Amino acid sequence: MHISHIAIWTTRLEELRNFYITYFNGTSNEKYINPKKGFESYFISFDQGFASLEIMQRQDITTPALKDCLGLAHFSFSVGSKEAVLEL
């Protein structure tokens, strides 16, 4: 079992992407955009064997109450297959 990725909510998507690319030597995929939900994200990959980072932004997270939800969103674990998940 290993951590597949860690997800973080942000209001500064492009700046955060550039930070991890510049200072952690990450590589980024093309931006994923879901216009219906106002959702945008990038996956930042690092050296092989390390978990990737998903940075996410939504247009409706603008009020101070919702901004309290920024930061760490979830960890994604991988065990290799659906069967392995069911076995666990």
Molecular structure report:
The protein has helices at residues 13-24, 64-67, 82-87; strands at residues 2-9, 27-28, 32-34, 39-45, 52-58, 71-78. The protein has 88 residues and is an alpha+beta fold. Strands 1, 2, 3, 4, 5 and 6 form a 6-stranded mixed β-sheet that branches. It is globular and about 40 Å long. The mean pLDDT is 83.
Please outline the helices and strands:
Elements: E1 2-9, H1 13-24, E2 27-28, E3 32-34, E4 39-45, E5 52-58, H2 64-67, E6 71-78, H3 82-87
Parallel strand pairs: 1-5
Antiparallel strand pairs: 1-6, 2-4, 3-4, 4-5
Taken in chain order, the helices and strands follow as EHEEEEHEH
Helix-residue proportion: 25-40%
> Which structural class do you get from the secondary structure elements?
alpha+beta
Q: Point out poorly predicted stretches.
A: none
Write down the overall mean pLDDT: 83
Shape: globular
The number of helical runs is 3
Number of strands: 6
Straight-line N-to-C gap? 11 Å
In short:
The protein has helices at 13-24, 64-67, 82-87, and strands at residues 2-9, 27-28, 32-34, 39-45, 52-58, 71-78.
Feature tags:
88 residues; alpha+beta; 3 helices
